[in-house]
Amino acid sequence: MRILSGIQPSGTMHLGNYLGAVRQWVAAQNPEAFFCVVDLHALTLEIEPSQLRTQTWDTLASLLAAGLDPAQCTLFIQSQVPFHTQMSWLLECVASYGELTRMTQFKEKSGRQEGYRVGLLTYPVLMAGDILLYSAQQVPVGDDQRQHLELTRDIAERFNNRYGEVFTIPVGVQPPAAARVMDLQEPSRKMSKSLSSPLGSIFLLDEPSAIEKKIKKAVTDTDGEVRYDWETKPGLSNLLEIFACITGETPAAVAERYERYGDLKSDLAAAVIAELTPVRERYDVLRADPAQLASIAAQGADKASQVAGERYRLAASAMGLI
Ligand code: AMP
Ligand code: TRP
Asked: Which domain holds residue 93?
């Protein structure tokens, strides 16, 4: 199955990234799967160059620690495969300004700052290029990327209608639970790398004591009944989703096993710690060997370029470029 997905090196990976996306990638990896650290996307918001560089390696090491294996899939850094920026230009000349300004994420992020970058507007086109370059059939992502996936499909269909069948039309794939992990302190807001409250996000590399504290202090409600109900119990439902994702149950089935919030929280903390501890231990080893990370990235970029180059040339030629 041809698969592609990506993650921005814009901060430390959190439980939302892991459960919503990366854990699915690990399960789906195969020789036809491509996963990238999308450093070009991270330039759409202000970021220190040194920080971007460090976080790109951190993110690559985190993906390896989470279980992606370069012998089973292709793992690369987006900017090391120049076809991504080249394809993005071709697709900017297929996408319309109107459809880009309608993207929810663009509206949110551009609303937060004066003089936002043009890249913030064109970001979903770069993402469409990432996907279409590899003829991905499936794109495993969290819920917040659904709209960008729809746009990718629209762009691909428009291109194919106008210039001939060059692109595979991809579908987005979400996990059955935890496709949108919410902030533990503000369950109306999704868990994020940057905007969360200090206790709101669990990070991939958190120590067990920090994980335990954050889950114990997670906001719930005062009615005390363990029930899966996003309307009236968003905090608790978020915890149930996280639990269900880890154990492979449904959130409602997890809820049935508990009478008290405290017991649920203790068991959930133990489950999250058991899931993340091996990842953190592997990360420490991997991150300590920058030469190995660089070599994995170089090999990945090489493999990715072969596939991406072929699709880019077909697209460019279909549009009339020499
Ligand atoms: P990003 O960190 O924005 O590059 O996201 C990387 C992947 O994690 C994407 O597939 C997102 O949809 C997914 N993701 C990000 N935040 C969350 C969240 N709070 N819950 C579930 N998935 C998420
Ligand atoms: N836009 C995605 C995010 O912020 C990251 C991303 C970039 C991506 N290119 C992609 C995801 C291609 C899937 C496929 O999470």
From this structure: 3-173+289-318
Same domain, 145 and 226: no
What distance in Å separates the CA atoms of residue 60 and residue 76, rounded to the nearest whole number? 8
Does the model's pTM come out above 0.90?
yes
Q: What's the 15 CA to ligand 1 centre distance in angstroms?
A: 9
Contact 230, 180 (CB under 8 A): no
Those residues whose C-beta lies under 8 Å from the C-beta of residue 236, and which sit 6 or more positions away, are: 220, 221, 226, 227, 228, 229, 261, 264
Q: Is 20 in the pocket of ligand 1 (CB under 6 A)?
A: yes
Pick the residue whose CA is nearest to atom 5 on ligand 1. Answer: 7
Q: What is the pLDDT of residues 258-288, one digit of tens each?
A: 999 999 999 999 999 999 999 999 999 999 9
Beta strands in 78-234 (DSSP E): 138-140, 171-173
